[in-house]
Specification:
heterodimer, A: 114 residues, mainly beta, seven-stranded mixed beta sheet, 11 strands, 0% helix, B: 114 residues, 52% strand
C-alpha cells in the first residue's frame, strides 16, 4: 500500500485566498483524521471522520475551516479565507477500527499564508 | 488544556548515550500510551506503545517505563544513534472520549551528536 497520500506538499498563498488540502487514506481504513502542527501548539486534532461521516469537528478553529469526505478514498480540508495565522503543517491520518490501532500519517501539507 | 504534558522540549545527547523523554497525565481513564517518532518532512509514525497493566515495555533500544501511581511515563532510548534524531511525541488514549481520543504531547526534538 502507498500509505496516506496528501497534496499539495507545499502551498504558499496570500491572505484572503482559498486553500484546499487533499488526502487519500489507506484503503480499508474507516477512520480519517485531520491534524494541524505548529511549534507552539504541537499536534492539534481538527476533525475526524468515521465511515465518511464527520464525528467530531470541535477542533476546527473557526468557520473559515471546513472538511469533507465524499467517499472512502478522499477527503478535503478547506480554508476560506486564509489568514497568516493559519500557516502550519496539516496532516491527514487514517486508522482501521479500534482506538488503540496504529494511526498512519501522511507526509503533511506545509501551508504558508503571506 | 494540555491533556498530556511532555518534557523536555528539546534534548541533545552524545552518540551512545541514553535519551530520556518524560510525559505526565492527569486523567486516570487513559489506558493506552503510544509514542510516535517524526523525522523532518515526514508525518509521525508509531514507535512503541504500552498499556497500564505493565510497568515496562522494551523493543530493541527503545523502552517505555510506566508509573501508574505517579501518572507518568517515559521513553528511554539506549545507545542513542544519530539516526534517532527526530521529534518524539507521547500520547494517551481513553475509551471514554470515543473513537478518537488520542491526545498528543507537544513533542521533544532529539538531536544525537556523533
Amino acid at each position: 500500500d502507498a500509505g496516506v497520500i496528501q497534496s499539495p506538499r507545499h502551498e504558499v498563498t496570500e491572505m484572503g485566498q482559498e486553500v484546499t488540502l487533499r488526502c487519500k487514506p489507506i484503503s480499508g481504513h474507516d477512520y480519517l483524521f485531520w491534524y494541524r502542527q505548529t511549534m507552539m501548539r504541537g499536534l492539534e486534532l481538527l476533525i475526524y471522520f468515521n465511515n465518511n461521516v464527520p464525528i467530531d469537528d470541535s477542533g476546527m478553529p473557526e468557520d473559515r475551516f471546513s472538511a469533507k469526505m465524499p467517499n472512502a478514498s478522499f477527503s478535503t480540508l478547506k480554508i476560506q479565507p486564509s489568514e497568516p495565522r493559519d500557516s502550519a503543517v496539516y496532516f491527514c491520518a487514517s486508522r482501521q477500527g479500534a482506538r488503540t490501532g496504529e494511526l498512519f500519517f501522511g507526509e503533511g501539507s506545509r501551508l504558508t499564508v503571506l | 488544556q494540555q491533556q498530556v504534558k511532555q518534557s523536555p522540549q528539546s534534548l541533545i545527547v552524545q552518540k551512545g548515550g541514553i535519551s530520556i523523554i518524560n510525559c505526565a497525565y492527569e486523567n486516570t481513564a487513559f489506558d493506552y500510551f503510544p509514542w510516535y517518532q517524526q523525522f523532518p518532512g515526514k508525518g509521525p509514525a508509531l514507535l512503541i506503545a504500552i498499556r497500564p497493566d505493565v510497568s515496562e515495555k522494551k523493543e530493541g533500544r527503545f523502552t517505555i517505563s510506566f508509573n501508574k501511581s505517579a501518572k507518568q511515563f517515559s521513553l528511554h532510548i539506549m545507545d542513542s544513534q544519530p539516526g534517532d534524531s527526530a521529534t518524539y511525541f507521547c500520547a494517551a488514549s481513553a475509551q471514554f472520549a470515543g473513537a478518537n481520543n488520542l491526545f498528543f504531547g507537544t513533542g521533544t526534538r532529539l538531536t544525537v551528536i556523533p
